[in-house]
Each structure stands twice: as C-alpha cells, then as structure tokens.
Amino acid sequence: MADKSMEGLNTFTSEETSTVDAGKKMRVAIIGTGWIAGSHIKAYLAQPDVEIVAGCDLIPGKAKAFFEKYGVENVKTDYANDEEMLADKSLQLDAVSICTYNCQHAPCAIHAMEAGVNVLLEKPFTVTLEEAIEVMKVEKKTGKVLSIGFQPRLDDNMKMIKKIVESGELGKIYYIQTGGGRRRGIPTPHGSTFIEKDTAGIGALGDIGCYSLDMVLNAIGYPKPLTVSGYKSAYFGTDPKYSGYAVGKGEKYSKLFGVDDFAAAFIRLEGDIILDFRISWAMNMDTPGDTIILGTKGGLRIPSTECWNGTVGGPMTIYHEVCGQQTQTVVPIIENKSKVGLFEKKIRTSLDACKNGTAAPVPTSQIVYNQAIIDGIARSAETGREVEINVPEV
C-alpha cells in the first residue's frame, strides 16, 4: 500500500532495540502461582534488571514448588496470603505480577498499591465495573503504576489495525463485528478456577472476550460505551457429556461450572458506532466469524483465528474504491522477526513504566470501558433487557 501510514511496519519498537540498564535491579514478586504465572516468571527471567524476591499463593507449599520448578533460588514464599507478603518491608518490592483467579484481581491490586508497590495485573481487569472503579480510586490515590495484561495489542498486526483506522483510509467508522472463540475449549486442563463462580466470576466473556474487545476498541480510540443488550449461556460447560472434558471429569466439572461458555451482545458506543460482539469457549462452529470494521470510505476484514492467540488469523483485506472502481487491498501478515515474544514485551513495557515513572502501557483509563462492556453484558443477560452503561469519573 502507498499510504504513508503503512510505512515503517517492519521496524522494531524502542522496547526491543533499547539497551536495558541493569545497574538497578527491580525487585519483583508474584502473587498467585498457577498456570499463567509460568509465563510471567519466564519473561521476568529474561530481563537483566529483575530480581525475583518473593511469591505467595493461598495453597500452602504451592509457591515454593513453583519457584523450585523454574530454578529460582532465595525466594521468600512463607506467606499465608498477599497481604502478609506485602507487609514484609524487608522485601523492598518495586512491582508485583498478579496472577490470581479473577475474583482476587481487585483486592490484590488494591493491597499492592496501598503498600506502595507497582502492579502488572493479569486480564481481565476485574469481574465487575464496580470493582474496577474501586481499584482505580486507589491507583489515583497512591500514584502507582497499574498496567493491565493485554499483550495482544503489542503485536505488530494488531498495531496495523489501529494504523489503518487512524490513517483515515476507512473514513468514519460506524459498525464493527468482532469476537472469537473455540469449538471445544473450556480451560479445565488448568484446573477448575476458570469455571467456578466463586473464583472466576465470569467465563469466556472475561477470559478471551476482553481481548477481542480490546482489539477493536483500541483501534478506534476507546469511545465510551452507552448501552448494551447482552446474552450469555452455559449449555456446554454444564453438560457432563461435553466432549472437551477429560475422560472421567465430566460429572465433576459440569457440577462446578458456574460461569458463561458463550456470550453475545449488541453495544452502542459514543460517536454513533455499533459493536456486534460474540465470544465462545465452546460451540458447534469453527468460528463465530471474522472481525469486520465498516467505515464510510472503506471496510477492513480481519480473519479469525482457530483459538484466540493474540494476533490475526491471516492477511487482512481493505475493501475500498480507487478512482471510482471497487477494489481490495491485501495487508500482508507482519512476521515477528524479533526474538522477543508478546509476553516478554508485556513484562518489559510494564517494567519500563515503573522504572521511568511513565504512564502504564495498557492504562486502566482505557480498560475500564472494556470492563464496563463486560459488566453490561452480564447485567443485561441476567435481566433480559438492554441496560445503560455509566462509568463514574475517578
């Protein structure tokens, strides 16, 4: 494409090319040592300016075994909970990764910031909008860096979507269809915390739905959501014969299942934009459809992925007119030529914000709208009617 907005797409970001100053070590702890914490610790171990000094988990002995598994020594883990660890001033913590189940995101983030520690919080932000607002109040009061773990937006193909929209090539955006999902992908291989109401709070809606929402909302500048008409179901998760459960686990998991495995919504956004959304952990279809962004000058098709993986499913296509003729422009996939993966970029950008006192790479001021939509979908589905979304000022 000739558009200048497409230039420089194969260059690396400053985070990838800059030399990290390892003179001052960042003292880091991990709260919650389950499955996702493994990705965090591997990314931290790749940073020359990080010292992992502590960790905690509600299950006795789990944190100690976690750090031993990754060969990290001299890590203090003899804490009953996050509050006890954060109260240990001898740790001199600079930052924590919060890798707990969803329902502990808000309290752990609040505890950490009140203890004077910066936070990288795994997605989803929280379970409810009310929780998100409470976290943001503490963030504002303490002035600590709080970044939300949305690493897909660091992918060059995701950045391309935003560049295309901002270039004006599509004109005024008025309709978006987005979502994603899995044919059989309820995440029980990682235990039951993803599917129990008391621990997860929300299912596919928050787990992978937050990603697909961020892909398009970030591209169009995160306009305020106004109303939502939402739907959610759990036909597969509550079925003991669901074929995605491990052999012999169907009865157990179907009884524990207390969240959504499918959700859909019709969302009105500020600026007269309509967002048509659907997300799935399990369905009788290979995909709920490609993402499309319709504008007055052009439309963008973003191929879906088989299972949400943080990028796009193939070359994107812009549908537009050139000299009065309808035509299509293919936007090739941008290959990651760097050795730095998305998760490591997420860790690095968050660390840089903490070290330099700069803004969070994925700020709560944006993600609160993402959370407001998720919260609105859940409320609408439970009441069976359209609901208004009101995000309080913090």
Topology:
Elements: H1 14-17, E1 26-31, H2 35-45, E2 50-56, H3 62-69, H4 82-86, E3 95-98, H5 105-114, E4 118-122, H6 129-142, E5 146-149, H7 156-167, E6 173-181, H8 197-200, H9 204-207, H10 209-219, E7 225-233, H11 250-256, E8 262-269, E9 273-280, E10 291-295, E11 298-302, E12 316-322, E13 325-331, H12 342-356, H13 364-383, E14 387-388
Helix pairs in contact: 2-12, 5-6, 6-13, 7-10, 10-13
Précis, in short:
The chain is of the alpha/beta class and 394 residues long.
Task: Describe the protein in words.
There is one protein chain. With 394 residues, this protein is of the alpha/beta class. The chain folds into 2 domains: 4-151 and 343-362, NAD(P)-binding Rossmann-like Domain (Rossmann fold); 152-339 and 370-388, 2-Layer Sandwich (Dihydrodipicolinate Reductase, domain 2). It is 32% helix and 22% strand. It has helices spanning 14-17, 35-45, 62-69, 82-86, 105-114, 129-142, 156-167, 197-200, 204-207, 209-219, 250-256, 342-356, 364-383, and strands spanning 26-31, 50-56, 95-98, 118-122, 146-149, 173-181, 225-233, 262-269, 273-280, 291-295, 298-302, 316-322, 325-331, 387-388. A hairpin with a 2-residue loop joins β10 and β11 (298-302). α7 (156-167) runs parallel beside α10 (209-219). The longest helix is centred in the last third of the chain and has 20 residues, at 364-383. The chain is globular, with a radius of gyration of 21 Å.
